[in-house]
Structures are given as structure tokens and as C-alpha cells.
Automatic annotation (TrEMBL):
<dbReference type="GO" id="GO:0031295">
    <property type="term" value="P:T cell costimulation"/>
</dbReference>
<keyword id="KW-0393">Immunoglobulin domain</keyword>
<dbReference type="InterPro" id="IPR007110">
    <property type="entry name" value="Ig-like_dom"/>
</dbReference>
<dbReference type="GO" id="GO:0042102">
    <property type="term" value="P:positive regulation of T cell proliferation"/>
</dbReference>
<dbReference type="GO" id="GO:0007166">
    <property type="term" value="P:cell surface receptor signaling pathway"/>
</dbReference>
<feature type="domain" description="Ig-like">
    <location>
        <begin position="1"/>
        <end position="98"/>
    </location>
</feature>
<protein>
    <submittedName>
        <fullName>CD86 protein</fullName>
    </submittedName>
</protein>
<keyword id="KW-0812">Transmembrane</keyword>
<keyword id="KW-0472">Membrane</keyword>
<dbReference type="GO" id="GO:0042130">
    <property type="term" value="P:negative regulation of T cell proliferation"/>
</dbReference>
<dbReference type="GO" id="GO:0071222">
    <property type="term" value="P:cellular response to lipopolysaccharide"/>
</dbReference>
<dbReference type="Pfam" id="PF08205">
    <property type="entry name" value="C2-set_2"/>
</dbReference>
<keyword id="KW-1003">Cell membrane</keyword>
<keyword id="KW-0325">Glycoprotein</keyword>
<dbReference type="InterPro" id="IPR051713">
    <property type="entry name" value="T-cell_Activation_Regulation"/>
</dbReference>
<dbReference type="InterPro" id="IPR036179">
    <property type="entry name" value="Ig-like_dom_sf"/>
</dbReference>
<keyword id="KW-1015">Disulfide bond</keyword>
Length: 209
């Protein structure tokens, strides 16, 4: 995983147990089957075969056998393969391959609750709220509401509207809540954006009514 616009680290996991000299190795990285991302040709970096979008964006740490991909973008997501060939009696022979899958993460803004209501609140009328969060990646799992009063909390399930920016590929999400105006009791309403198991959740500032 790498954050958007940060450096992604792709490891080749090459043990080099034979302590082979880099000048006897050809190391290249490719994305999918066609795009050459980086190439070290018998000790020298070679740029002739690189896909244009990776030019000046990669560095190879030959001690750790790790490729640094600078300024990682959402279009960089996908499967990368590292291939190492040894110059054996003149003809190159593949001695190591490994694959890694790159996922890009962009932080969502803190969810924000907005009133879709004008005028005075009256008991037993409906209260309309919306919650929104923007500029994140990947697409979130869901957006839920927490309504707490006295010793009770409940989670009404609501639809989440998702839109994706055509250029940046970042997501914006919104959910609407329509509830009866609470009477005679302090009610706290919070909106939660669930980003997935490993990324956790983001919570809005609670709204007290």
C-alpha cells in the first residue's frame, strides 16, 4: 500500500545468496505484461524500453532489491513483476521472479453533517440532515448514522451516494438522514464512514439536538 502522491516501495525479494555481481545481472520491473517500469542492464540503468509514464519516476535500491516509485498515482495501481536474469555463458537465464500488488490510498476528509432544514424545529416534524466526505480512495464500504439518546443508540441503515471524479479518480460520498425531531431529550447524531477492515472508520463531529 502507498499513499497518493507519496513514494511506493516495491520489493523484489531477491535473496542473492550466491552474492552475484550486479554487472552480471539484468533486472527489470514490468507492470502487467507490456509496460516496462525500470531496467538495470548489467549494472547500468537503461531507459530505452521504459513506458513513458515511468520515466524519471523510479529508483532502484540495489542493496535491498527494492524499486521506489515516486509520486504514486491511482493509475499506478496493479500488479508488478520483478524479473532477474543472469548472464550465463553469454545467454541470459532467468534466475528469479517475484510479483507484488500495489494499492493506492488517499485520505477522506472528516465526514461533515449539514442541516437540510430552514426555519424553526418543531416536535414530531421531520429533520433532514446530510453527511458528506470527499477526496478519498479506494471506494468506501458504507456510511452509517449513529443516533444516541439517554442510554440508547441505534443505527438506521441509509443509502450512500458515491461519485468519482473523472480526472483525479478520487471518490466523494454523501448520505441523507430523515428522522422525527426528538422531544424532551438530548440527542446526539454522528455520521461514520467505513473505509474497510484495514483502514478503519472516520467519524463526524457529533451533532447535539
Amino acid at each position: 500500500k502507498s499513499f497518493l502522491n507519496h513514494t511506493a516501495y516495491l520489493s523484489c525479494y531477491f535473496p542473492n545468496s550466491q552474492k552475484t555481481d550486479i554487472k552480471d545481472l539484468r533486472v527489470f520491473w514490468q507492470k502487467g505484461d507490456v509496460e516496462v517500469v525500470h531496467e538495470v542492464y548489467y549494472g547500468q540503468e537503461k531507459h530505452d524500453n521504459l513506458s513513458p509514464k515511468y520515466i524519471n519516476r523510479t529508483k532502484m535500491d540495489m542493496d535491498k532489491w527494492t524499486l521506489q516509485l515516486l509520486n504514486a498515482r491511482i493509475v499506478d495501481e496493479g500488479q508488478y513483476t520483478c524479473i532477474i536474469q543472469h548472464r550465463d555463458k553469454g545467454s541470459p537465464k532467468v534466475i528469479h521472479t517475484s510479483e507484488c500488488l500495489l494499492h493506492i490510498i488517499a485520505n477522506y476528509s472528516q465526514p461533515e453533517i449539514a442541516w437540510l432544514h430552514t426555519g424553526e424545529l418543531k416536535p414530531n416534524e421531520y429533520l433532514n440532515l446530510s453527511c458528506s466526505s470527499s477526496g478519498g480512495y479506494p471506494e468506501p464500504k458504507q456510511m452509517t448514522w449513529l443516533i444516541s439518546y439517554e442510554n440508547t443508540t441505534y443505527r438506521p441503515m441509509h443509502h450512500m451516494d458515491v461519485s468519482q471524479d473523472a480526472v483525479t479518480k478520487l471518490y466523494n460520498v454523501t448520505s441523507k438522514l430523515n428522522i422525527t425531531v426528538p422531544t424532551n431529550t438530548l440527542t446526539n447524531i454522528t455520521c461514520l464512514l467505513h473505509l474497510g477492515e484495514q483502514l478503519g472508520s472516520l467519524a463526524s463531529v457529533p451533532l447535539g439536538i
